[in-house]
Records
---
Amino acid sequence: MAAVRLQDVAIRAGVSQATASRVLNGSSRVPGEGVADRVRAAAAELGYVANAQAQALARSSTGLIGLIVHDIADPYFSSIAQGVQAAARRAGKLVLLASTQRDFDIERESVSTFISHRADAIILAGSRQSGDLDRDLEKECARYLDNGGTVVVIGQPLSFGAAVEPENYAASAQLAHALLGQGHRDFAVIGGPGNIRTAVDRRNGFVEALATHGVTPLVEIAGDFSRDGGFSAARRLSAALDLHPGQVDNVPPCVFAVTDVMAIGAIAAWRQLGLAVPDDVCIAGFDDIPTLRDHVPGLSTVALSLVDIGERAVRLALDDSATESRAHEFVPGRVILRDSSVLRRV
Amino acid sequence: MAAVRLQDVAIRAGVSQATASRVLNGSSRVPGEGVADRVRAAAAELGYVANAQAQALARSSTGLIGLIVHDIADPYFSSIAQGVQAAARRAGKLVLLASTQRDFDIERESVSTFISHRADAIILAGSRQSGDLDRDLEKECARYLDNGGTVVVIGQPLSFGAAVEPENYAASAQLAHALLGQGHRDFAVIGGPGNIRTAVDRRNGFVEALATHGVTPLVEIAGDFSRDGGFSAARRLSAALDLHPGQVDNVPPCVFAVTDVMAIGAIAAWRQLGLAVPDDVCIAGFDDIPTLRDHVPGLSTVALSLVDIGERAVRLALDDSATESRAHEFVPGRVILRDSSVLRRV
DNA sequence: CTGAAAGCGCTTACAG
DNA sequence: CTGAAAGCGCTTACAG
């Protein structure tokens, strides 16, 4: 049983297909009211639903926005996805979702598929390995842009397309100042992979702000950009700093983990070692992911409006001029101090 | 600058469009090797990417799977989404995502849009209000099914389409037994809205299992199916039970919250009131959402393999016979006891 | 304001 | 094995 076509409603309404198309989907002035009503009535009676595929082919615009994230189950990305989804819906667009699980081949494949489906725009969320995409991907994107596609990156900008980027460097510096303000003097850093710029910027912003005050981190350890990365980095770090439970005589060192997810992993590792936060060791993260809300101890962090970031990305994606001019929006972070970095008087 | 079309590569390869189509996309036997090679070479040189929209129109199959969730930022749904996404990718399908934020109008609109885009299948995740969809939505789905579409529900089955449903009743009963086994005798329930069957089944499974042992909950309170719903229900509950910090002389009552998200909200409320878990009040949830991993205190719960549920839904969606026979798969839950329900000796 | 007709980029019987 | 041609369901100049 085939679906109702525009032709069917046209016949039923006694008008041409062109007219039916105009009253149902066309934007310009509506035809004579009588005609329009008849067409609408016919469409309703038949239960007509326009075939978006056919429309896309005829209009050469699909109304599809492709979103590629590292891991949709990660609260950081699912919050961004919510923003993208909401903004897309308001703009009458649909979102195609791809979750790469940090697999580069899957990412490349996803971009191809989105292009093949002629997504009007592609949003790439999550920092990439090196400064740019690999050769193949880049060529494919170039062709896509030539054909009128638009690319928006969340995070580190590429050599093409628009970008919305958190102010990682500046916000991390603010965090450092806030922690110094709390009385901290001993610091350590749990950084991310050296080729991920987000990780590097956060580390640099923090460390260089400390340097301003003549402070240098006691240790720096790098881990994966994940909860488990934070977990194992924290173990190594506590060994390096020779941390022990209940050393109330010393002021505990303050660790900066470049993402909340890593910080949470670190706290879990320490708990397992019997180390209490903030009594034996203090910590701060970055992102203010929603799950922090009910995490104990409360984690000091830098709040990023993740949903807002997703919405901005859509706005850029829909704005051709923004894409052509390679617009680059920065979104600020806001320092939030919670229990995890509180220095208790001894 | 228009994209490369099949016609272009056909001309370049010196063959007909039909032949080019067959070597590039057709499934059956590949034409003479020489020809095939030339076509592939031409496609590569030109950077040909098939237009999926046109293919969809010609084949009347889009390769699109629509996923509708209540809230993509909720870890329950984002885990399911991950499963859906992974299974879809393996099957060469693309997923369209809609997050309704629990707004029924948006849900209806999303279904329409997916149908309009001729998604091959639609997966509806999350319990619905009443037993079924509303009139409009149902009629639209009926037409969709007639036209070859397939619908899969995660949770309570509808009057049509396939379903994958957690064994809510049985698993909640097991949880009750496990808690009785831990020595609990005083119980309370934080339930969900009375018209959401998932909530009702879990409540019933739990309460009826208790009844088997001659135990009746002291109180039952209903809340929204959300973190804040659990939060406010917990406040009312602690008033009803007259809970106070440090009543070490009594065995604390054990509360069953029908979702982990609600349980987490409840714990937050109690913490604010100075009530400690599990010393002043015990609690167990349901779902084993991933964020539980680093939640303190560890929450006793029923583990559902959320990713697996998403994957199963895709499998059903892709299997026409399953849809036609209104397949109904059950997925078991596994009781996990953690700190939140531990009864300490006084 | 309305309609006939071409075109969007593919696939697929149907012949050869 | 290969090609000419019709068809998928719309939109949109172009005439009237």
---
Amino acid sequence: MTSKHATVRDLRRTNRATVLSRLYFDGPLSRFELSGITGLSAATVSNVTAELVRERLVVEAGQVESDGGRPRVLLRVDPGYAMVAGVDIGETGVKAELFDLAMNRLAAVDLPLPSKRGNSKQAEPAAVVAQAAAGLREVLAGVDEDKVLGVGVGVPGTVEQEPVRVHAQTIGWHDVPLADLLCEAGVSVPVFVENGAKTQGQAEMWFGAGRGARHAVILLIGSGVGASVITDGTIYRGSASSAGEWGHTIIQYGGRRCRCGASGCLEAYVGGEAIVERYRAVRRGKAVAGADEQANLATLLVAAEKSKTAARVLDEAADHLGAGIANLVNLFNPERIVLGGWAGLAIGARLLPRITEAVRTQALRRPFEQLTIELGKLGPDAVAVGAATLPVAALLDQRGTR
Amino acid sequence: MTSKHATVRDLRRTNRATVLSRLYFDGPLSRFELSGITGLSAATVSNVTAELVRERLVVEAGQVESDGGRPRVLLRVDPGYAMVAGVDIGETGVKAELFDLAMNRLAAVDLPLPSKRGNSKQAEPAAVVAQAAAGLREVLAGVDEDKVLGVGVGVPGTVEQEPVRVHAQTIGWHDVPLADLLCEAGVSVPVFVENGAKTQGQAEMWFGAGRGARHAVILLIGSGVGASVITDGTIYRGSASSAGEWGHTIIQYGGRRCRCGASGCLEAYVGGEAIVERYRAVRRGKAVAGADEQANLATLLVAAEKSKTAARVLDEAADHLGAGIANLVNLFNPERIVLGGWAGLAIGARLLPRITEAVRTQALRRPFEQLTIELGKLGPDAVAVGAATLPVAALLDQRGTR
DNA sequence: CGCCTAAATTCAAGATGTGAACGAAAGGGC
DNA sequence: GCCCTTTCGTTCACATCTTGAATTTAGGCG
């Protein structure tokens, strides 16, 4: 309803949440600094922090002398207060990781998915759920469940919330109640599910190349292509959480067929799978036979040093990517664009200047000037890290609402 | 800074603002109904409305008997409390209108701009400012200025706020301090400036085809192409207010040259000017000589009844428009898309089914199913109406902050 | 005229943020 | 060693706000 505040108690919740968030993101801070940053009076900060300390969520962390006067006592969120798990469901495998509140990795496990290449559907929900539950059991082995805030899951498809329903047109998932399925498979901590591009985006925003930006777009270029749009600090979801499907925007009307059914989608030009495919087609089968796309793309990148054909394929991909990014620039006017995903990172490492130049020529001048384009800092684990931030996010803005 | 509430006084402001907004948008309401809608207690509603009535912003508006008990007294914002002006700066003319608070049109005037077709720049800022000021003088003649809340101006370019700077790549405006210029030209009421597509969008959201939607995109297809993206009820501006430049997104990589300098922009395929141009090219000069684009497009639409060539040009435009809309659907996942602008309304009246079908085949299935596509309800005056809503919007959320 | 119902207002209670006063913890000068 | 200064943190009286309950108001109906 009028979700905003009405009662004087909501005020307290809001203030608790902002203090807690500030402490979480801006590291150890003294009460004095908190007062300046949050705009709250010193009295209120004292009040709120006392509560948080009493609940053991926040702990003292040393002192800082302040020329002459009483030293400031630093406060920070206790990393050991709780743990969170993150699961990255990819098209070929499942990754499960365990973190403390400060996102230090405590455990990790990688499980393959049965590849039924013969079968049209790549991964049955049941098989995926089984592997995810197995992975979680492994990283949570010997851990007190009361200490686990929850588990976040990043999936390659759009996720509707309340109730959680996963749709992934490209791998044949429709209306999959993933959270419920995981519960039934024995996962007994709270489950949060979100699109993988969005979890990766949150990870880069919180800890990676997106830090400090209020408007940004984090790109996920793997086999497929996705994006996470951050508007004024929060992930944009649209009316049914499926916003940000950048990979299936059309940049070449009537162009190459895409696995989504339409023609000329960006994904058909710049997705890792598409690029490798393209190289294969251009060379008429004379190359890259292996099944591992990541290895194939690496081979292609090396080949481009000498082969003009290979270089041309990559340049073409970079130019099309530039067009796709230019569209984002014109539509969203972000201050930063971050290139992530295994294919994005691989291509970007070598071709970022060309990509940037392609954006410059195809975007409007003004918004381009207000933009920086960077590579992701968290590598391919970002999806799992971001998934694990979901329970943390819930903690940060619910603290007090419970 | 932490713009959100901190003190218990801000709470009052917020509640005043929500009550006032509710009264403004949802017409006459009783205190009892207000209590239900806003979630506030009856006591608070009584309190807040008493204040608003005392300030003459809200007045009683009749009664409604409620089976048996004390009848409810209806309250509404007093349309006569103040007036607002709206100016629509187009590429060929300036429109100025005066409204009361309920957006009843009290006066209107249309002034042409000196067309320097020979000159490369279409409209010097100075000439535009002079005409706008003249128009305002005319509609404000004999009006008590204290009663005028302010004037909103819709311009065909992006508008950076604080300080106001207008950039319009297509008509050669760079860094134009329009608000200041209007002040210097003798406009003595508060001036608000915003992109025309955005003001049109706000008008359709408040009073037209967008009512009730929280996520929507309002398209403005005139000579050029623009859009206003509404995310969760508010216009999306991006980091420097230039978000929503949909017309210059690329849908045909390497395609037709656009006046913005890039190739394959949507505007080069579906803008009113582009369509007429296209028809002229296809017929090799055999047609449409007049200078008035609107008349030319009308002619084309009639010709399409019989001429296959004309029909083909229009169908092609509709299909490309479908691709452009599909991109919006995939990126923003809106619940509604509204087609506006003189060209959009003209084409849509005849081709909406074809456009919708084109969207269906090119967008992802799920977000398409959650979408409706409609024509704008306010006609070509929407830009001016929306401009006039800017001071009203300021009133609605500042009431109490002042 | 009195009774009944429902809306609107009043009132006391509970919760919160704030500024000012107060207390605490250092360093520096003598 | 003592006192002063500086700066951070806490306490407390106060003003403001929302709320639920009690009370008042305004009509309909018998």
